[in-house]
Amino acid sequence: MGEIGKFIHGIGIQKSDFSETGVGCIHYGQIHTHFGVWANETRSFVNPELAARLRKARKGDLVIATTSEDDEAVGKAVAWIGDKDVAVSTDAYIFRHSLNPKYVSYYFQTEHFQKQKKPHITGTKVRRISGERLARIRIPVPSTEEQARIVAILDRFDTLVNDLSDGLPAEINARRRQYEHYRDRLLDFTEAA
After folding, report:
1. Strand order in the sheet with 5-9
2. Most buried residue, 33, 112, 135, 186, by most Cβ within 10 Å?
3. How far apart, in Å, are the Cα atoms of 69 and each of 13, 66, 78, 121?
4. Whole-number Å distance between alpha carbons of 60 and 75
5. DSSP 23
6. Cβ burial, residue 111 (10 Å; 0-12/13-18/19+)
7. CA-to-CA distance for 28 and 20, rounded, in angstroms?
8. Cβ distance 44 to 27 under 8 Å?
9. pLDDT digit string (tens) for 109-154?
10. Could you give the residue ranges of the DSSP H alpha helices within 27-77?
């Protein structure tokens, strides 16, 4: 990955720095709990004076949580696709690259990435991975068109599985209504007049 992009270490945001408005920021803990594959808006903000001193992710960058208590969560990433730059906290890296950002974020979820990442994790109770070690991980780089095709397919699956108004939950609700309809008809023993 070090050959196709650059890792920039986030700095200096504590949860106590959050404000109601200001410049958007991504705290590493939110990558674990709030964000999925991509994001175009933040959950938190910091005041502009603080933000001016911080490192920021640009549209298309990956924001990677580098600390967790378990190996699987170390290296969880979110593709930033918002129009405004966002401040990034300590214990996170910004990966600046020229690939499709969602493609890279989806790759970070694969078993292949997990296997490559594992030997690079350090620490005992708190597990970490550095930008230098992330740079050693290999990622397949298909054509721009193929990256877009893969992202389109995975986005459809993601919607099917996770979207509350679309996909699988909607299908489950439709089957539930169908079941209730047929159950009521089959168990309706009123005689026709």
Report:
1. 5-9, 92-97, 62-65, 77-80, 38-39
2. 135
3. 20, 10, 19, 11
4. 17
5. E
6. exposed
7. 18
8. yes
9. 999 999 999 999 999 999 999 999 999 999 999 999 999 999 999 9
10. 28-33, 48-51
